[in-house]
Amino acid sequence: MTNVEKRLEELAEYLNDGNELEMKYSELFEIAEQQVAEVTRLRDGIQDTMDTGSSRTWHPSLKTLLNPGDQLTRRQQLCEDLYHAGMKWDRAEVASLLQKLRELDKEFATPDFDLPANVPKVGDLIYLPTRGSIDHGYDDVWGGVGMVKEIKQGISAGVPASFVTAHEQPGRGHNWEFLGPEQTKLKQDYGNGWARPDPDLG
Questions:
Q1: In order along the chain (202 residues), what is the average pLDDT of each group of 10 residues?
Q2: Which residues pair with 127 in a beta bridge?
Q3: What is the DSSP letter of 194?
Q4: SS percent in the chain: helix, strand, coil, step 5
Q5: Which of 29, 91, 121, 140 is the most exposed place for a label (fewest CB within 10 A)?
Q6: 162: three-class secondary structure by DSSP
Q7: pTM for this one?
Q8: Contacts of 71 by beta carbon, 8 Å cutoff, 6+ apart
């Protein structure tokens, strides 16, 4: 066992004991300077373990530690801010946030993912449609890839339905009964483009 493997295993045991994570990025980077390729391999293995739902419980902060500068979180916050700027009819703020989103999207591509066969789970990636209104464009949205933020059960046409909301389209709920069958076509329409709010303030 190398020093890197030993240190990360000690960290995993420390986290599994229920203690709080106190290790700073700089400490991990010092370890990585010695064997960068090996740390990358171990990181991917840990990520796979978390993604496949292993019985080992990983502290959620470990995922953040291994993925500093989370661009997805930055983008989701920009979408939330853009939605609220549209609600306030703040044209200058809308223009500024749209520019920031465009710049981020130049360097942040959507990951490959399988289309959900059933109602998605929170955290799943799905395709979202473009929606607009003639009389209130402040909550218009552009379609593309989005991450599920919330799923609520409700009633549609007198029958139970699952309504899906994504980080990229705040304030817009979609009935999965209709959105689910559209996934293949939406993928053809939007490819690897991200969804986002698209306020039309006239």
A1: 68 58 50 53 51 41 45 92 93 94 87 91 96 84 96 92 96 94 96 93 69
A2: 145
A3: B
A4: 50, 15, 35
A5: 121
A6: strand
A7: 0.65
A8: 104, 107, 108
